[in-house]
Write a structure and sequence with these properties.
mainly alpha, two-stranded antiparallel ribbon
Length: 80
């Protein structure tokens, strides 16, 4: 099991997510982001806007590269 924070995954806080795969941790992060969106948390809304800008970038590879970097970060973490 590996641990990453919301901030490590592009978010705005230090909430920890624990998972065995990058896909699992991504889903946890997404659910947390949706909760923060519903709560209208300003810091998370700003982080979400930054991600939206990245996704809409004219460089279609930008988001793919970002995801690959995060996957590699996850893979490099020690199992706990």
């Amino acid at each position: 099991m590996k641990t990453m924070t919301c901030r490590q995954l592009g978010g705005a806080c230090d909430m920890e997510f624990h998972a065995n795969t990058f896909e699992e941790i991504s889903e946890q992060s997404k659910a947390h982001g949706m909760e923060m969106f519903r709560k209208k948390d300003a810091a998370h809304l700003e982080a979400m806007n930054n991600m939206r800008v990245l996704m809409e970038s004219s460089d279609s590879e930008a988001m793919k590269n970002w995801m690959q970097t995060k996957r590699e970060e996850f893979d490099a973490l020690p199992d706990r």
